[in-house]
Amino acid sequence: MPYRTERQKLKGIRKGQRQAYEVVVCQHHKSIYRFMAYLTADVSLAEDLTQEVFICVWASIDGFKGHASLATWLHRIAYNKFVDSKRKLERDAALMTKLKQHSYDAREKSNPLDRIADDEHSRLLYEAIRTLESSEYIVIVLHYIQGLSLREMAGVLDESVGTVKWRTNQALKRLKSFLIGRV
Question: What is the pTM (predicted TM-score) of this model?
Answer without folding.
Answer: 0.50
